[in-house]
Amino acid sequence: MFEELEWRQPCFAIIEDGNAVSICCCARKSTIAAEASVETLYGYKGKGYGTENVIAWAIEVKKEKLKPLYSTAWDIFSSQSIAEKLGLQKYGVDLHLS
Fold first, then answer.
1. What does the pLDDT read at residue 65?
2. Distance CA 64, CA 46 (A)
3. Between vectors from CA 40 to CA 39 and to CA 41, what angle results, nearest 5°?
4. Which residues contact 88 (CB under 8 A, 6 or more apart)?
5. SS3 for 95?
6. Amino acid 92: pLDDT
7. For a disulfide at 58, which of 12, 37, 68, 69, Cβ 3.0-4.6 Å?
8. How far is CA 76 from CA 60, 81, 85, in A?
9. Are 42 and 49 in contact (CB under 8 A)?
10. Which residues are within 8 A (CB) of 33 and not within 5 positions of it... i.e. 6 or more apart?
11. What is the CA radius of gyration of the chain?
């Protein structure tokens, strides 16, 4: 993952016991906006680490004059919980046809 971090900046992590247990960085980035990518190890979920990382990431993205975006899937409830805690506004829905 370290090779990817250069183009995924800004990047924030929660360190516990010497290990990154939660990380937030850019999934995508353009000259207008950046999309968050957040991952928290299973045993560390529910402690607010993902939310803390997304807040720090969004503040830094705004300093770069970019619009921070957060996306999640319908079946990833922990990610939806972060969006809810942050009071984010839904602005779009994906539709996939097979």
1. 96
2. 30
3. 125
4. 70
5. coil
6. 65
7. 68
8. 25, 9, 15
9. no
10. 66, 67, 68, 69
11. 14
pLDDT at 83: 81
Domains present along the chain, CATH in parentheses: 2-85 (3.40.630.30)
Element (H, E) at 54: helix 49-63
Please identify every stretch of the chain with a pLDDT value under 70, giving residue numbers as ranges: 1-4, 90-95
Tell me the one-letter amino acid at 21.
V
The token pair that represents 67 in the structure block: 């619009």
Q: Which of 68, 80, 81, 65 is nearest to 28 (CA)?
A: 68
User: pTM (2 decimals)?
Assistant: 0.81
Pair of tokens at residue 48: 């607010």
Residue 59 DSSP label: H
Closest CA to 53 of 87, 7, 9, 12: 12
